């Protein structure tokens, strides 16, 4: 699935509790904040290198929201489902380039897709001291098909939401064109990083990097040798490259056509869907 990662600064080690430091590499932060400012211009928001308070999202009054930098990272469980969905609906559902392009809106099928792997306990949340989830990374394990297995159903086949079905058809096309197990014939499974989303008020604090570090640690502890990320966003792909992920597949949106017509044309710089991977045994 597409991944929406709007921020990354320091690549921080996975530890059981994290208090975010206000000190980061200035060049990385400048680049991150410029990227975010460009991304958020359409909603009249700006990114700051050291956010402390900002307008409360979705509020029509002048109430200010205080940024709580005392963050902890922990495993997402099924009891977190509604809070995770609340975060995704406010940010990922609106910010991800393909969702934005098709003006997705409410989509129960996307909600189901986002939460179907929570029972694996391989996904992580960033929580402030007030108990608010301000960032998530949603992961799921993909197993190598075995001889005699029935081919998996196409994602778009039973999709009833017409706009989400267009996105699922693109995912089906990618699956037809590229098989990760052909490229990595020695692995029997990989961890698929489906979604990373961070509250806009907390971007620029390195939360995406911390969540990714916990994912890498989970994979290492469970003997998973490969992390896989499908990036529909230019920004998400750049973030993963900075974290030593390598591109293994690219599909320019201009090349994906049905009946000769280009299906997706999101705003630049989002010009291609890319798959990036990172091996943990090298």
Would you count the extended β strands for me? 11
Total DSSP helices = 9
Judged by helices, strands and strand pairing, the structural class is alpha+beta
Distance from N terminus to C terminus (CA atoms, Å) equals 25 Å
- The overall average pLDDT, rounded, is 82
**What share of residues is helical?**
25-40%
Cα Rg:
18 Å
Largest beta sheet: what is the strand line-up? 3-4-5-6-7-11-8
Model regions low in confidence, pLDDT < 50 over at least 5 residues: 2-24, 29-34, 36-62
How much beta, percentage-wise?
A: 15-25%
SSE succession:
HEEEHHHHEEHHEHEHEEEE
Task: Give the CA-based shape.
Answer: globular
Q: Strand count, sense and closure of the main sheet?
A: 7 strands, mixed
Description:
The chain has 282 residues and is α+β, with helices and mostly antiparallel strands. Helix content is 31%, strand content 21%. It has nine helices and eleven strands. The chain has helices spanning 26-40, 81-90, 92-95, 97-102, 108-115, 162-177, 180-183, 207-221, 234-242, and strands at residues 53-55, 64-66, 72-75, 124-127, 133-143, 189-198, 226-231, 246-252, 257-258, 261-262, 272-279. The chain has a seven-stranded mixed beta sheet. The two termini are 25 Å apart.
């Amino acid at each position: 699935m597409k991944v929406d990662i709007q921020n990354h600064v320091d690549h921080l080690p996975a530890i059981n509790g994290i208090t975010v430091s206000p000190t980061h590499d200035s060049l990385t932060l400048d680049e991150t904040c410029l990227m975010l400012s460009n991304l958020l211009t359409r909603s009249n928001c700006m990114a700051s290198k050291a956010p402390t308070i900002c307008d409360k999202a979705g509020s029509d009054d002048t109430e200010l929201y205080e940024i709580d930098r005392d963050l902890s990272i922990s495993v997402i469980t099924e009891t977190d489902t509604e809070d995770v969905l609340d975060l995704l609906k406010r940010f990922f559902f609106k910010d991800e380039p393909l969702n934005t392009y098709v003006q997705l809106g409410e989509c129960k099928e996307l909600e189901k897709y986002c939460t179907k792997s929570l029972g694996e306990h391989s996904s992580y949340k960033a929580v402030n001291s007030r108990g608010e989830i301000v960032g998530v990374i949603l992961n799921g394990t993909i197993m190598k098909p075995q001889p005699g297995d029935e081919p998996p159903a196409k994602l778009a086949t039973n999709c009833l939401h017409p706009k989400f079905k267009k996105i699922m058809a693109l995912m089906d096309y990618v699956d037809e064109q590229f098989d990760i197990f052909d490229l990595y014939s020695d692995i029997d499974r990989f961890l698929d990083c489906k979604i990373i989303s961070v509250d806009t008020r907390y971007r620029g604090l390195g939360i995406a990097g911390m969540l990714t570090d916990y994912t890498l640690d989970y994979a290492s502890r469970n003997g998973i040798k490969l992390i896989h990320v499908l990036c529909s966003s230019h920004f998400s792909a750049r973030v993963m490259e900075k974290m030593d992920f390598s591109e293994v597949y690219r599909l320019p949106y201009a090349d994906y056509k049905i009946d000769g017509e280009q299906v997706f044309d999101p705003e630049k710089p989002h010009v291609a869907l890319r798959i990036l991977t990172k091996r943990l045994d090298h």
